[in-house]
Amino acid sequence: MRLPPQVSSLLLLTCLIPFTQAVASANSVARNLQNIESVRTIKDIQRQISQLAAFGLYANISLLFAPNGTFQVLAPTNSSSTPYTISTTITGRAAIAAFLIQDAGLMNGIAPGSMDIWITETPLVNLEVDSQGLGQRAKGRWNGIRFQGDGKGGTRLRGGIYENEYVYLGKEGWKVDVLRYYGMYEGEGEYKDGWRNVGGNGLGRVKYHMTPDGAGVPVPGFYEGIEEIVDGDMDVDIEELEKRVQRLNDEDEVRNLMHSHGYYVDRRMWTDVVDLHSSNTSVTVRGEGGGNFTGPAGVRKVLERMGPENLTQGINNDHPILDMIVEVDPNGREAVARGIEIGMIGDANNKTARWEFNVFRNGFVKGQGVWKVKHVDITPLIVADYHEGWGYGGLKTPNMYTPPFLNTSRPRSTSPSTSTRRAAKKDPNLDNLQRRLAKALAFDAAENLSTAYGYFLDDLDCSLMGSLFASLGHKASPFAGFYSTPTRITDACFASWGHTNTSSLRSGISYHWRPQPVILVSSDGRSATLRARLLQPNTALDKPGAFNSAMYHDQMVLENGIWRLWSVTIDEFYWTSSSWAGGWSNATLRNDSTPDPEPAGWTKKYPPDLSIKDVGDREAGFRGGSGRYVEWPMIQRMWFQYRNLVSGRTPEWFWEGCVPCRVRRDWALEENGYQEPPSGPVVGDGTRR
Ligand SMILES: *[C@@H]1O[C@H](CO)[C@@H](O)[C@H](O)[C@H]1NC(C)=O
Ligand SMILES: *[C@@H]1O[C@H](CO)[C@@H](O)[C@H](O)[C@H]1NC(C)=O
Ligand SMILES: *[C@@H]1O[C@H](CO)[C@@H](O)[C@H](O)[C@H]1NC(C)=O
Ligand SMILES: *[C@@H]1O[C@H](CO)[C@@H](O)[C@H](O)[C@H]1NC(C)=O
Ligand SMILES: *[C@@H]1O[C@H](CO)[C@@H](O)[C@H](O)[C@H]1NC(C)=O
Ligand SMILES: *[C@@H]1O[C@H](CO)[C@@H](O)[C@H](O)[C@H]1NC(C)=O
Ligand SMILES: *[C@@H]1O[C@H](CO)[C@@H](O)[C@H](O)[C@H]1NC(C)=O
Ligand SMILES: *[C@@H]1O[C@H](CO)[C@@H](O)[C@H](O)[C@H]1NC(C)=O
Ligand SMILES: *[C@@H]1O[C@H](CO)[C@@H](O)[C@H](O)[C@H]1NC(C)=O
Ligand SMILES: *[C@@H]1O[C@H](CO)[C@@H](O)[C@H](O)[C@H]1NC(C)=O
Ligand SMILES: *[C@@H]1O[C@H](CO)[C@@H](O)[C@H](O)[C@H]1NC(C)=O
Ligand SMILES: *[C@@H]1O[C@H](CO)[C@@H](O)[C@H](O)[C@H]1NC(C)=O
């Protein structure tokens, strides 16, 4: 029997998208879209606070709060029953502005040589919907670290966790209702003293607003077909919906592009960086020693000022990208990304190192369906010798330029309710739209799961961490091997860390920040690949904390309406700090005759399903893997899950799919009813090149 074309394409779409039990209605698409836009706006508002602080714009920050909004600081008490107590509560915009100005003092990014780099990263945002299914309030957990200096030698470092609340105020849009900062580590006075636990106290867990299941449910009702649980019509214009969904998909591509750009810069993969640029590209580096560079040759030239292509022993060129806001122009062909970049640069051969605190504001163009970098514009705020620190204003003339901000108060949509062409109740295009929306949602869900994993691991909460995994998911335990299924993943964590009492205080914490994600979503929106940095500040009672760096290679899936971790591999470490005083460049080459470290002792009692050695060449060089252990300042191989996202160039170390899947084929997504997400450039919606 021949079906009319409309019906057969409808059937085809329905089998491609098993999660839409019912055909999407215009109302449900409009609601889901609005909720996803809300999640992103909330993240952008928090990032905007960071960006404004770098220029001392505290009064502008206060306008991102609700008129009755609250700024609260909590400090550790050294008591396990109530580990934190409120030390400051400020309510109302004017009072918040006054407090922030007074609190910053001369460390405000305005006074010559001063600095206020206030990072909030790794968002976990939870939307609360009303009876219409629309988000009206939200909670967000963030990691924070704040680097300040007064230009006269004084420095201040503060780190901890935010558990914030946000509220939707109609015309005014989303605002911060309560910003709740749990201060966990700090250092004030001289740079060389670094930071320690606040008050010399033991640290308790900061109560979660999330549950493991919740972390995988991006917007309530999305996969159930929300139209069944709410009544009421929204006025929707299908063309408007299409444009807004496209904008989300474009934003994701620009994020991936910029974050990949960053990873290539870190490894000095100059050819790959240049590949990401358009032929008409340009680079501006502002301030002393800056300049303008045009075309691919100009890009290469400015990159080579950092050093020759590729890393050699002892070189660290990391530039983590943080608090990036992306704005896609309504024309759909141009975009801007503004964010903060912290250079953690060093040379272990002569034990030199430096900090760079930069703001970037880059432009992008889309041509033939692919986004490319059109312009890089870098404003260095402070460049400082690592050992001297940024307190004296660094090595260069103070910056006087403020790169224009993006406006996070501008609504993402033009006018969702002035409808010209109303959607038919059951329009087959809507299923396609719902699928593209599902791809955008997968992006947020993957980031959410990734950060939830980091937060549970910070607290060594093995049960919650294990519950984030799919029923057949697997995870690498560092230096040991891979464990499959949530139960075994949890038990491996217990075997490694012991049954820690999650309500007792700890003398120190290693934080698992997972910023700068590159997230590639399958065309059906049911699986994703995620690459993220592990940026690991740590704190202790009795000595200053420091940073380490590693790389995650993960996959996520949608299982029974909840996003779960499918595969997690950590490649560690690329560099470590010997101490705060020594930093990342005080690394000594391992003696050639030192035997390689044995796999962790606990693995004898609780053997993995697959050892790191069993994985073969892919994990060779990492601790526990085959071959000689490669330890910083030697350079570990850096693996990529994707080819160059513009040119398709294959990186030297390329590994498609999950890390152990060439040995355990049965662990591959495709063997389990999921699509393998793209591992290279994607043109438009889903075509591989
Ligand atoms: C900050 O506030 C001032 C004064 O209200 C205003 O002129 C300026 O445009 C604001 N800047 C930003 C980036 O919000
Ligand atoms: C401020 O007002 C809003 C709207 O009236 C309300 O939802 C919110 O809870 C209030 N916030 C605080 C901190 O009282
Ligand atoms: C915190 O509590 C521990 C254990 O009771 C105690 O040894 C320590 O001195 C306390 N620290 C402070 C700063 O009070
Ligand atoms: C993130 O996790 C929270 C907390 O579990 C959950 O409520 C929220 O829906 C998730 N958000 C996204 C965007 O995935
Ligand atoms: C190249 O960029 C310049 C400056 O942005 C612009 O004026 C010019 O039209 C561009 N040329 C092409 C071919 O895109
Ligand atoms: C580079 O370009 C910027 C922006 O157009 C301009 O302000 C600056 O003076 C130029 N710098 C140099 C060194 O030419
Ligand atoms: C850098 O490494 C890549 C990949 O191995 C190689 O193709 C390229 O020639 C290297 N560049 C230099 C300057 O050695
Ligand atoms: C250390 O080595 C770097 C090259 O990596 C060089 O630029 C720098 O001048 C050297 N510094 C000292 C103090 O030798
Ligand atoms: C940002 O956009 C909003 C809404 O369009 C507008 O009211 C506000 O003035 C803009 N802010 C700045 C600093 O341009
Ligand atoms: C966990 O620690 C808390 C606080 O130290 C204590 O009250 C509680 O009894 C401990 N629980 C277990 C099971 O040991
Ligand atoms: C560098 O490391 C060595 C060996 O671990 C140590 O003795 C030295 O104190 C460190 N230097 C600094 C500045 O911390
Ligand atoms: C390396 O270790 C061997 C054996 O412990 C020792 O004899 C040798 O002196 C060490 N070499 C260096 C450079 O430290």
From TrEMBL:
Gene3D superfamilies: 3.10.450.50. Residues 1-22 form the signal peptide. This is SnoaL-like domain-containing protein. Residues 408-421 have a biased composition (Low complexity). InterPro entries: NTF2-like_dom_sf, SnoaL-like. SUPFAM superfamilies: NTF2-like. Residues 405-428 are annotated as: Disordered. Pfam families: SnoaL_4. Residues 35-178, 246-376, 444-568 form the SnoaL-like domain.
